[in-house]
Amino acid sequence: MSKSDQTTMRQFAIMIGGLVVVAVILIVTALCIYNSEPKETDPTQPARVAERIAPAGAVYAGDTGRAAMQAAAEAASKAAASQVAYGGTTDGKEIYDHLCTSCHTGGIAGAPKVGDKGAWAPRIAQGIDTLVKHAIEGYHGPDGNFMPPKGGNPALTDEQVTNAVHWIVDQAK
Length: 173
Hints:
By secondary structure, the protein is an all-alpha fold. The chain contains seven helices and two strands. It has helices spanning about 5-35, 45-55, 60-80, 90-105, 115-125, 130-135, 160-170, and strands at about 140, 145. A two-stranded antiparallel sheet has the order 1-2. Helix 6 (about 130-135) packs across helix 7. It is elongated, with a radius of gyration of 37 Å.
């Protein structure tokens, strides 16, 4: 290598070294500025994290577990009871129009159609109390028909279901 080439290489190395030093200084300055700025906080983040890491279930054992399960069941039933369906109306026709019509108009799942006296006669012969019980508790018939408890709406009160059953039976008489 000639003397001129050595000088050029030395100047080039000094220039590269200087650029590296400037880059390091800029990076350190940027990190200092970034760390001194206040971080944005999301007020809902702790709640979202708590919900995300909450256990999906619990294991109960012995009397303590039994008491905890009963307390949870009572809390769930109170919560369901506090939400009365359809604004609390006890009009059987209105309840039928909101819920029952979906199955009892088309005969879904073996449901007897409203006004079909032939389909309703053997059911009415069992007594209105039996019909109300089946509507409240649910029913699996011998011919494959199925009535979900409270028509599939647990927010209905027993009185609402009873009035809907009476209205449907009145249509088949």
